[in-house]
Amino acid sequence: MDKQRSNYTQEELQTFEQRAVEFIKKNPNANRTRIANYAGVGITVLVKLSKNGAFKLPEPMNSKQVRKTHDWGNMLGSLK
User: How much is the pTM?
Assistant: First the structure.
């Protein structure tokens, strides 16, 4: 019994890679999650694909960077 190497075919992997490169060109400041959602796969698959060198994934955001992406003052101010 052969060991399954991947859940995706080579054509699917190439499609995911192309979509990731396309999204990174359109949105250079996008985070890893947005890139993975657009490509249609999980982040771990993109990490494996990025090791080929076709594209470079951004570093994961820390909690302080994530908090800066939301403007809670304006959002909560409109709840009055």
Answer: 0.72
